[in-house]
Design a protein that fits this description.
It is a single chain. The chain is an alpha/beta fold. 53% of the residues lie in helices and 7% in strands. Strands 1-7-6-5-2-4-3 form a seven-stranded parallel sheet, with helices on both faces. Helix 3 packs across helix 4, helix 5 packs across helix 9 and helix 8 crosses helix 9. About 6% of the residues have low confidence.
Length: 438
């Protein structure tokens, strides 16, 4: 039976490696940004943020054996990215480390075992954050569309509820009781903490993690500059139609990830929608179908022996249906949205900064055009240049990670002393300038 704990009882023991496994759409982006932005404050309070950036996706995909969206090979990323993360975790002198990625939730049983074996079963602590299924569903659909899917919402919903086997990724992530069971079976239920996110308090997830990591209240702050708003229905429809055209042109997954994840999606999110723009709402039949699944999830979590913070009944919350607000007509993409999407794609290809977008394109066979051979040779050269630039960028990132790891290995007293010396030097230079001005 689940053990309900207070915020004070959430604290993990010293020596713990905390893995926040999501799942998706449970406040992960907000948490990861807060942890990353506060990493110096965390270190001063005995917590090491692990990762070479805000969310080291490639490292998690590598250890869990999931395919990378950044290449067209269909293979997982190289293990060097995971080795960087694991090395930082093992070399940390702080009493606790924390690594957050919702992509841990995609791991199958073998992937979970690899993670636990690498991190160490005696030190790992797993944290799962939960939100209502009915609120997750529309957010997850729009994320799938941003990742390249072309399914209209209602068509996708029918598959989700009427043929669950057709949407294995969704249910692997969002049958939350089974997700918890899979990880608890490997690490032990006593090493799993479940946090129910309170949607009425957007900072609740940050306060929970402060308690969990032993941080001073207020250490983690919401990053207002990190735009992660949900797209409107019209914006998602524009992306969906773009995807259809993109795949009809037989272009590659790596290019789609670049132009959408690094360009168009962010550019759309930075836009301020009009008040009357339609949100993504579920039809009433889908909300009715989600209700018994939510109850099964709650009952399943209650039957485990994990630690629970928060009220499981919050998971039964449902948003307004499409019928309740009178929005049942099909939506069309606004020209302003379409223009913004096009500009985001342009930015995603680096064309705005002078690079040729063709350098990242995976093309089809040249066909019968007599100019095809010359054109293909030029494209090959552009691709080689793009690969060289990417390799140089990766090498620079590895160097930065190595420097960060080397800095982390310096004993904390020496780091504090170095900071104090630098501060003293700055004050001395300031006094010298003032003296010279006289």
């Amino acid at each position: 039976m689940v053990r309900i704990v207070s915020a004070d009882e959430l604290l993990v023991p010293e020596g713990s490696h905390v893995l926040h496994i999501g799942p998706h759409k449970t406040g992960t982006t907000s948490l990861q940004s807060a942890l990353f932005n506060s990493r110096d404050a965390l270190a001063e309070q005995g917590v090491r943020f692990v990762g070479y950036n805000r969310h080291p996706i490639s490292a998690i995909l590598a250890i869990t054996g999931r395919r990378s969206p950044f290449t067209d090979s269909g293979r997982p990323p190289g293990m060097d990215r995971w080795d960087e993360v694991l090395g930082a975790m093992r070399s940390a002198e702080e009493p606790r480390t924390v690594l957050s990625s919702e992509f841990f939730a995609d791991a199958d049983d073998e992937g979970i075992q690899r993670v636990v074996d690498a991190v160490g079963a005696d030190r790992i602590q797993v944290v799962v954050t939960l939100r209502p299924l009915a609120k997750i569903i529309p957010s997850q659909w729009q994320q799938f569309i941003q990742s390249g899917r072309i399914d209209p919402l209602d068509e996708w919903l029918h598959r989700v509820f009427e043929d669950p086997g057709a949407e294995p990724t969704f249910w692997r992530r969002h049958r939350h009781d089974r997700l918890i069971e899979r990880w608890a079976a490997v690490v032990g239920p006593e090493r799993v903490r479940v946090v129910v996110v309170d949607d009425s308090d957007h900072s609740s997830i940050l306060r929970s993690f402060e308690s969990l990591l032993g941080l001073t209240p207020g250490t983690l702050v919401v990053d207002r500059s990190k735009s992660n708003r949900s797209l409107t229905l019209g914006e998602v429809e524009a992306v969906r139609l773009f995807n259809t055209a993109f795949w009809n042109a037989r272009l590659g997954m790596a290019l789609h990830t670049k132009v959408m994840r690094s360009g168009a999606a962010h550019f759309l999110q930075e836009r301020r929608p009009e008040k009357d723009e339609r949100k993504i709402l579920l039809p009433q039949w889908a909300l009715d179908a989600a209700e018994p699944v939510s109850r099964a999830i709650i009952d399943g979590v209650r039957a485990t022996d994990v630690l629970l913070a928060g009220d499981l009944e919050l998971l039964t919350a449902q948003p307004h249906s499409r019928e309740e607000v009178g929005e049942t007509e099909p939506v069309t993409a606004d020209p302003v949205v379409a223009a913004r999407l096009a500009m985001g794609v342009l930015l995603g290809t680096d064309a705005a900064t002078g690079a040729d977008p063709a350098a990242a394109v995976t093309t089809v066979a040249p066909g019968e055009d007599p100019r095809a051979a010359a054109l293909e040779a030029a494209r090959q050269e552009l691709r080689r240049e793009a690969q060289a630039r990417a390799a140089a960028a990766e090498e620079a990132q590895r160097e930065r990670a190595a420097q960060a790891a080397a800095y982390a290995r310096i004993p904390r007293p020496r780091r504090f002393a170095a900071r104090a010396l630098r501060a003293a030097a700055r004050r001395a230079r300031g006094l010298a300038r003032r003296f010279d001005g006289r």
